[in-house]
Amino acid sequence: MGIEFFEEDRIFKLDTPRSSYIISIVDEENFIGHAYYGKKCRDHHLGYLCRTKEAPFVPSKNARDRLSFLDAFPFEYSTHGLGDYRESCISVKAPGGQSAVSFGYTGHRIYKGKPKLEGLPATFGTEEECSTLELYCEDKVLNMEATLFYSVFEDTDVIARSVKITNKGKEPFYLTKALSACLELDDQDFELLTMHGSWARERKIQYRKVGYGQQSVASLRGESSHQDHPFIALKAGDATQERGDVYGMHFVYSGNFFAQAEKNQFDTVRAVMGINPKDFCWKLGEGESFQTPEAVLVYSSEGIDGMTTSLHKLYRKHLIRGEYRNKKRPILINNWEATYFDFNTEKLLQIAKQASELGIEMLVMDDGWFGKRNDDNTSLGDWDVNEEKLEGGLKHLVDEVNRLGMKFGIWFEPEMISPDSELYRVHPDWAIAVPGREPGRARNQYVLDLSRKEVREHTYESIAKILRSANIEYVKWDMNRPLSDIGSVKLEADRQGELFHRYVLGVYELQERLITEFPHLLLENCSGGGARFDPGMLYYSPQIWCSDDADAIERLSIQEGTAMIYPLSTMGAHVSDCPNHTVGRVTPFETRGYVALAGTFGYELDVTKIPQEDREQIPEQIKMYHKYNDLVREGEYYRIASYSVNKEYDCYMVVSEDQREALVTFVQVLNRPNWKSRRIKLKGLSAELDYAVEGEGEVYAGDTLMNAGILIENPWGDFKGKLIHLTAR
Hints:
Elements: E1 2-6, E2 11-15, E3 19-26, E4 31-39, H1 66-70, E5 90-93, E6 104-112, E7 130-139, E8 144-153, E9 158-167, E10 173-186, E11 191-196, E12 204-209, E13 213-219, E14 231-235, E15 246-252, E16 257-263, E17 268-275, E18 282-284, E19 289-291, E20 294-300, H2 303-318, E21 332-334, H3 336-339, H4 345-358, E22 362-365, H5 394-403, E23 407-412, E24 416-417, H6 422-426, E25 446-447, H7 453-469, E26 474-477, H8 499-517, E27 522-525, H9 535-538, E28 543-545, H10 552-565, E29 571-572, E30 575-576, H11 589-596, E31 602-604, H12 612-615, H13 618-634, E32 636-641, H14 643-646, E33 649-655, E34 661-668, E35 678-680, E36 690-693, E37 698-701, H15 702-707, E38 710-712, E39 720-728
Parallel strand pairs: 21-22, 21-31, 22-23, 23-26, 26-27, 27-28, 28-29, 30-31
Antiparallel strand pairs: 1-2, 2-3, 3-4, 5-10, 6-7, 7-8, 8-9, 9-19, 9-20, 10-17, 10-18, 11-12, 11-14, 13-16, 14-15, 15-20, 16-17, 24-25, 32-33, 33-34, 34-39, 35-38, 36-37, 36-39
Helix pairs in contact: 7-8, 10-11
């Protein structure tokens, strides 16, 4: 494993535990070609896969057909404007107005470990855990240098990629596109796997045949978005959940993105990923550099399951940071759906007292505690405690909650400003807006211009003063609207195209400051639910609110898509009240607990008002959480059945790393009349071990459970769940 350069053959070989990635330097112009990505190979002599020994050959041997070469060669980082008519990764506006770019290899550096990306989230690893290739190339006409970064990990089949662009000339130029990664593959009858959605129905899985032309997902909302997710995968036509070739690309970024697969005339597929080039234009002066965010690439020969395992391991070990990375999270109760804006100290303490008696460990006070915030039309930006609601002040409330043996958490929406706020009356120019145009509102709020240092400073201090004032151990950081009306009064005219990215960098700076000053804080990101559930946010917060829709049945498909690429420990999941506040559905309290167990687990209800029979189940659910959370948080996740596909039932499982313990979750959504039991084949167990089924007295061989399966009788009724706990004998 690691990275090697074979100088005589001009070949770079990057090996992960089960994959190889081959880069070939070609011809006198030092074109950087992608030769191979797939199952691990002992040999490095794979440069022939670039097909340079067949027509149209390389330009030095056939200059008359240079365009034909450029339009077919598998470039490692595709460029614009000189004859490659497929999607490019980079384009510019040069001093003369031209847009063309061409890169040739000039050198490289291979070393142990992995560099940080300044101001950006990124995967990390020690010198023992990963190796990095810096591949240097240049455009001599533009006096532009590019460094292509590749890092491989010893413990997972992932390659992390990013690019740094530097102006080596004296005149400025403008980057109009700077993507992070390009991948060239021969078509394998690919299907494109993406995730789509909207508010309350995020990350729904979609497959579509990769036909000729371009198929993309993207965001221009200033956030990774509810609607599209910064992830694509190419699944071979014969691949399944358990076997076959799958290539995934995931963007470690929280703003506008672009990801695309393109099948060309020669049945090769180019996949690209990076910052959305629309409305992007970055000025680079003499000696200045631009660093792209990171894209992670994963190859699996074991179907979707193999991709899932690699990404989960990467994010748990090499992206999530801080005290709670490998730690059980406190069971919280959030007052939002319990009270909305209608609460005071007395009401919150009533909830906290009842919750503490049932074993709940933290009270989170949601929106409505500040300014004149009695509805969602006012006061964002005025982060001063409303003592008419919180009699005696915030510290008094926190101290009283602590006396009950509970931790305390609080909600903020730091990036926003209400038109009806003291802050807006003093600083209307702090809101993002286009001069002369009436800015669009969403939830009756504007977005603060976090590209400006003074706005970031004020925002940070407003939050930090609250956290310094009392023993607050959790923050829910929300963002309830996308960006629009993109304009900043502080950016120069030729830098307005930098605002989207500078805004995201501002968010990252604020969150980095927050977890640095308050290292024991549990930070949970949120964006109207799951509009910014992305790898970039995981670098700052170990968990993200998965969706504002906490209905157990809706959550089955939402959490299925999320868990395909994110560890279960990252998914904010709560038991909510019924009828559910989003869809009006009524599901058993027990089933709601089983579904929330697949995430961080907590409660979103008024514990003083729920039916007594539901309230009595809470202590048992808390025991369930403490019994299984280590396994759920750290185990390998496997998808058994998908309700979103079969429309009847859902099933998934987690298996401990040593394969000695497993937990299967089964949810029957709709019962069926006059049917026999279901046969479920398990995954991830040891074929050599025997497993006891808790509560049933049965012992099964591991290979029997995986090959023959077990029977689950039809529960009577809809929305019924079951846990099956297995331990090795």
